[in-house]
Amino acid sequence: MKTTEFIWFDGKLVPWAEANVSVMTHALHYGSAVFEGIRAYKCADGTSAVFRLEEHAQRLINSAKILRLEIPLTAEEVATAILDTLKANKLDGGYVRPLSFVGAGEMGVYPGANPIHTIIAVWPWGAYLGPEALEMGIRCKTSSFARMHANTLMSKAKAAGNYVNSILAKVEAKEDGYDEAVMLDTNGFVAEASGENIFMVHDGVIKTPPLTSILGGITRSSIITLARDLGYTVEEQLFTRDELYIAEEAFFTGTAAELTPIREVDRRVIGAGRAGAVTKHIQQEFFKIVKGENPKYASWLSHYTF
Predict the structure, then answer these.
(1) What is the pLDDT of residue 97?
(2) How many CB atoms lie within 10 A of CB 130?
(3) Cβ pair 179, 173 in contact under 8 A
(4) Which of 86, 88, 129, 239 has the most C-beta neighbours closer than 10 Å?
(5) Are 51 and 79 in contact (CB under 8 A)?
(6) Which SS3 state, helix, strand or coil, does residue 170 take?
(7) In this predicted structure, what is the pLDDT of residue 1?
(8) pTM above 0.85, yes or no
(9) Residue 268 half-sphere exposure, CB side, CA atoms within 13 Å?
């Protein structure tokens, strides 16, 4: 992992190596934290821009509300701090990780009056699943771990503790020789991956699971809008893993994964075994948007210079 010079920590820019917390931090023991994954891109006009900054900042605040963490910041203040951190580190493109967490104090499941801290880290980061994956696609397996029931953990909060489920699925997939896990919900329908939303193409129609037990991805929402604007039919509906096996195309979306094709699921080749025509079309248009090359979606970008 490439580090940068500063981390924003409770309103101050602190040298990366000095942004530390106690080993007795509540979030470290109990997962009482919420976070976001955000990308910044170098644009064609020489500026840089954060993709869907306002939406990500608001989701951090919403996640905290769901977990009853009282962050002493507004979404607007979070967004400003993100831009300040990128500028301070002179980072013209990369990954942004805001994290709000319960700090040290009383120990036990109940967080009590422990302080709430917020940090923002930024660093250079390329394609999450590898640059070749954006073209050739990745191999996936259906996980033995189900996505949590909607009333077990709060699926609409991007909460740190929720990701233990994702860790189990990802480790299992990697140790079995796959790149990623496809996770089913507790009723057996395809839900999402360990950190991505999933789409498939069948008979020319793009389908993605509805917002039941899944996290409503901001990239997911953007791709639905973009695909419809491009003339595709997009349906949010439940589907099974055997429907996924016979799809013409399939792909993951997410801040880290961006738009990554799926070439194989459970040893069944999807379509031609690489990015299909629909996937490539949407992927190409998506990258034009994040690089500021499509003015129709200018409102999705928050530009900055340093």
Answers:
(1) 98
(2) 12
(3) yes
(4) 86
(5) no
(6) helix
(7) 86
(8) yes
(9) 16
Distances (CA, A) of 80 to 35, 86, 145, 212: 16, 10, 38, 32
Amino acid type, 77? E
Instruction: Write down the pLDDT at residue 130.
Output: 72
Residue 90 known to be catalytic? no
Altogether, the residues listed in the chain come to a count of 306
- pLDDT at position 282 is 98
Contacts of 110 (CB under 8 A, 6+ apart): none
**Which whole-number Å values give the CA distances from 169 to 137, 146, 148, in the listed order?**
19, 9, 12
Residue 123 is classified by DSSP as: E
Residues 6+ apart with CB under 8 A from 99: 33, 34, 35, 118, 119, 120, 121, 160
Structure tokens at 61: 């605040």
- Give the DSSP H or E segment for 67: helix 53-67
Cα–Cα distance, 232 to 2 (Å, whole number): 39
For the record, the structure tokens of 117 come out as 């801290």
Single out the catalytic residue among 42, 87, 141, 158: 158
Q: Please list the rounded mean pLDDT of every run of 10 residues in the chain (306 residues).
A: 96 98 97 98 96 98 96 97 98 97 96 96 85 89 95 90 97 97 97 97 96 94 98 97 97 95 98 95 97 97 96
Candidates 37, 43, 39, 40; CA nearest to 295 is 43
By the 8 A CB rule, do 259 and 286 touch?
A: yes
Q: Which of 139, 116, 132 shows the shortest CA–CA distance to 63?
A: 116
CA distances from 59 to 78, 157, 176, 220 (A): 11, 8, 34, 14
At 228, list the tokens. Answer: 């419809």
Q: Vertex 151, ends 145 and 153: CA angle to 5°?
A: 60
> In the block, which residue shows the tokens 């990239």?
219
pLDDT the model gives residue 151: 87
Per-residue tokens: 218: 């901001």
